[in-house]
Automatic annotation (TrEMBL):
GO terms for biological process: carboxylic acid metabolic process. Belongs to the group II decarboxylase family. It comes from Trematosphaeria pertusa. Gene3D superfamilies: Aspartate Aminotransferase, domain 1, Type I PLP-dependent aspartate aminotransferase-like (Major domain). This is Pyridoxal-dependent decarboxylase. Keywords: Lyase, Pyridoxal phosphate. It holds the Pfam family Pyridoxal_deC. Signal peptide: none annotated. The modification N6-(pyridoxal phosphate)lysine is found at residue 318. The lineage of its organism: Eukaryota, Fungi, Dikarya, Ascomycota, Pezizomycotina. InterPro entries: Aromatic_deC, PyrdxlP-dep_de-COase, PyrdxlP-dep_Trfase, PyrdxlP-dep_Trfase_major, PyrdxlP-dep_Trfase_small. The keyword Lyase applies.
Amino acid sequence: MIQASETLRELAATFACLRTEPAPDVLPPEESVTRAREKLQQHLPESGLGLEETTKHLQEAIIPGLNASSRSPNYYGFVTGGSTPAASLADNIVTAYDQNVGVHLPKETVATNLEDRALVLLCELLKLDPAQWPHRTFTTGATASNMLGVACGREYVIAEASAVRSDATNSVGELGIYEAMHRAGIDKIQILTSVPHSSLSKAAGILGLGRASIRSIGLEGASHKIDIAQLKKLLEQPGTASVVAISASEVNTGAFATSSLQEMLEIRKLCDMYGAWIHVDGAFGIMGRILTLPTHSTIINSCAGLELADSITGDGHKLLNVPYDCGFFLSRHREIAARVFQNPGAPYLSTDATDTIMSPLNIGLENSRRFRALPVYASLTAYGSNGYRGMLERQIELARAIAEFMLESEDFELLPKFEGSKEEALNNIYIIVLFRAKDDSLNKELTNRVKASRKIYVSGTAWEGQPACRFAVSNWMTDAKRDLPIIKQALINVVKGWKKSKEEIGIVHS
Ligand SMILES: *Cc1c(COP(=O)(O)O)cnc(C)c1O
């Protein structure tokens, strides 16, 4: 039989130590991945291997084939945060206790109070007044949070359209989308946005609005920025309800859709006029609100006014540096929460109606839920606002140092092309650095050659129809002094290796 507590403690200790030892290389050797794949159990064992043998199997056969991105500060693919020591510790406790945080049961466990407190601390970190954001919950990530945002927006804009015609509230949650729209007298719901994350289209698809409901309203020549004139024109269309999605730092360039409080005030005013819902996708951009330095003023201004939105998406497993899978969702509309997400007709799940904490199962997607609040709570408690600000400042410092290297390099080029001074160009940089090789033939192979170095990891993407590479700096261990030389050396070696291979096949003659 399973020996519960001792074994759990040992396992927690084993895996906690695995997480804090920095990995020598950013990826395991490819042979290790292949070997691990070959050693996977081919069939369900009839009598299990037992805990001891299984631990050995995991340690010796499986772990060498894992890409432990959070253990290496030089992993710059996606926006992969690591896991802070406090968050890692708490995550082991989550597994050991296996709380189900679906129903608010304040006499039985502190879990739901802690979850709500973690969300309040998070609001404080992000300079959002918790009293203004009463619908708050943890999700599995920013994709799920965007789903909640679009679902709440859909509910709200139909109710707003109904209010114009009658005093009835036509709820999609109750009536379904077709009947609610019909009664509200609208025949179209559009999502107006600029450079949206792919997960916004996914949300629109799942929620019955359709991926085709996404309309890009980026400015010409600066597609990441909302074109306010176009916004007004589209909001005005009769019979149409709108959700406006603000990309607060988009994944390719890190650019923000708005650049001042003034712009957000204008967007808010227009949306109020036409009953539209504003959703902010701030998966990692929302953390820009914790910055204070004058050299970060471009980012600070881009985050100003995001508190005017109706809902906000944030990711925990990105810049908060808690383990996968953790996102958060905030909305200013508590009544919408229950209209969309109530889990009705299960009286055994109800709790005291006078308590201000709502059962998570009535305000989000899942019924049974992991206690993903605990790592966030532990990490915010351990490091506080200064600790998180310090982490983000170190991440921006490295991103800007990489960008500076690109600006000065003969072989690489910083994207998007920027017409101002070097200082201005660098002040635009948040934690993302998009770049390409100047030579087209190297550029085609660039991402794969960088990955093959196994010293640093970058993502491949496309920019203006050409391949491009992207650094996303997001690990709490980031340290420009230590990491920049590793990055430069890896990139220099990539260029050297490419030149050498060209000479070998006789293409470069000089
Ligand atoms: C990463 C990201 C998402 C999706 O987040 P997941 O955590 O992968 O679900 C959505 N929007 C933006 C802007 C992102 O950067």
